[in-house]
Amino acid sequence: MFIYPEINPIAIQIGPLSIAWYGLMYLMGFIIAFALAKMRVKQEWSPIQDNQIDDLIFFSVIGVIIGGRSGYMLFYATNALIEDPLSWLTQFPQLWTGGMSFHGGLIGVLIAVVLFSKKIKQPFVEVIDFVAPLVPIGLGLGRIGNFINGELWGKPTDSQLGFLVNGVVRHPTQLYEAFLEGLVLFIILWVFTVRKRSSGFTAALFLICYGCFRFLIEYFRLPDDHIGYLAWGWLTVGQILSIPMLVIGFYILFSSKIRKNT
Known about the structure:
The protein has helices spanning 21-40, 53-75, 78-83, 87-90, 102-120, 124-131, 136-149, 173-192, 201-217, 237-261, and strands at residues 2-3, 10-14, 17-20, 163-165, 168-170. It is mainly alpha-helical. It has 2 domains: 7-131, no CATH class; 152-262, no CATH class. The relative contact order is 0.12.
């Protein structure tokens, strides 16, 4: 087993100003996405131009931040939202303190890409196919940020991959997700898009792979304390939210195949 090193979540402290590793992971993710977009835009079938990448990243950043935070409030703080819905509007800091939701961030990015696609007058599906391979590295870095923060640990384990945390050896599910949803998913999508693919296939592959990886890792990850398991002693909110991704992904693949064969 490994021993968790208790990393300081604050990377830089200058007087009252503190910069967290988690925030730096997000920043690095967007920088890498920008660099990857610069590479992808050179493909002859790219739906966007080099001078439009800045706007694409800007729209995506706004979508991730607003969608991720709003998604957490909606999916993981539902009871508080129902009990006092106006608090999220009247207590402004509520919007910026607390967790982030991947699924909320995904919805935010989808909305952002819809708006961006209309701005540049390109089909939404073509643009989202372009964006999909840019996302996984940022996801992986975000999970490393969770690891540094010492959050989202997994169940107790006797595996040699486990980390000793507060006297208990646990699955490092943040690192599992960083590996599968970050590195592995990036390699799959990047290799898949070396040549032009049918419209929607790249986005579908992203949805299916992420949905499968997240559903699997949730078996090893502890649910949020204030929510727990939803059913059967293992079903989590993360798994419920991943099911629509799988359904939509397979629907895109099968519907495209049917249209191609008719």
